[in-house]
Amino acid sequence: MEQPTEFVFDIPVGAGVATRANADGPPATPKDAATVILVRDGADGVEVFLQHRVKGMPFAGGMTVFPGGGVDRRDADTSVAWAGPEPSWWASRFSCDEALARALTCAAVRETFEESGVLLAGSAADVLTDVTPYAAARQALETREVSLAGFLAGAGLTLRADLLRPWAHWITPEQEPRRYDTRFYVAKLPEGQEADGATSEASSSGWQRPEDAIADAREGRRMLMPPTWLTLSELAEFATADDVLNAPREIVRIAPTLVRENGHVRVVLEPR
């Protein structure tokens, strides 16, 4: 797919797009973050798990997004039992050092579990099919009472990095007051597991075909940020979830620029 260089969003200025107060000052330092695109095979093709964030949240309030969030300092714990591509491999794909690559991948697994109930873990040989025994741990992770490393060790679980694939790298525009340097992963819903909306950060969630989510955005039924919109347009090209996982990807950091004019927001994509 040819990478578009510009999107035009017909949304009012300020609707889900914030502007920092010190527009003439230095931009905010972006926080490292991880997002996971969960996919599955539906009756009519590939489906993706989406969440509608609660309105009024400091970042992306009211927007429809994939599960994800910022890296916690404890995500870098090297004691995590690990199966699959090593941090050095992820570092090479995401153009970062091994410590950050480990933290990003751990954050991806942790945030996916917190926000959707899907746990990309198991033993070195098997993937979890039933996560109900870990409901209390999910809440403890969300409130930061326990770290991912502590939870996995206590449960005798191994992080399954082999269930993830690198997908993209986006950085929040400099004009925004809250900025994230986000690596996007993709994962297929593990057999036997279910994704839910049991998180305080989402007012609703569910599975949808990528093309239907885009149609909803075009017709004003949902709001999508540029990374979500572009990712959905890419996913719409695939016939199966396995096709998504097996797609070759060149990870290039994309740093959008926002241009506000005549009540519209034009988003210019700039690979860097």
Question: How are the elements arranged and paired?
Answer:
Blueprint: E1 6-9, E2 31-42, E3 45-53, E4 64-65, E5 68-70, E6 82-83, H1 87-94, H2 98-116, E7 121-122, H3 135-142, H4 148-155, E8 158-160, E9 164-171, E10 180-188, E11 202-208, H5 210-218, H6 226-235, H7 241-246, E12 253-254, E13 257-261, E14 264-268
Parallel strand pairs: 2-10, 6-8, 9-12
Antiparallel strand pairs: 1-14, 2-3, 2-5, 3-4, 3-11, 7-8, 9-10, 13-14
Helix pairs in contact: 1-2, 2-3, 5-6
Total number of helices: 7
Structural class estimated from helices and strands: alpha+beta
Mean pLDDT, as a whole number?
Answer: 86
How many beta strands in the DSSP annotation?
Answer: 14
Helix/strand order, N-terminal first = EEEEEEHHEHHEEEEHHHEEE
* Biggest sheet character: 8 strands, mixed
Keywords: Hydrolase, Magnesium, Manganese, Metal-binding
Domain Nudix hydrolase: 30-230
Protein name: NUDIX hydrolase
Organism: Amycolatopsis plumensis
Summarize the structure.
This protein has 272 residues and is of the alpha+beta class. It is 25% helix and 27% strand.
Description:
This is NUDIX hydrolase. It comes from Amycolatopsis plumensis. InterPro entries: NUDIX_hydrolase-like_dom_sf, NUDIX_hydrolase_dom, NUDT19. The chain has helices at 87-94, 98-116, 135-142, 148-155, 210-218, 226-235, 241-246, and strands at 6-9, 31-42, 45-53, 64-65, 68-70, 82-83, 121-122, 158-160, 164-171, 180-188, 202-208, 253-254, 257-261, 264-268. It has 272 residues and is of the alpha+beta class. The strands form 3 sheets. Strands 2, 3, 4, 5, 9, 10, 11 and 12 form an 8-stranded mixed β-sheet that branches. A hairpin with a 2-residue loop joins strand 2 and strand 3. Residues 10-17 have low confidence and may be disordered.
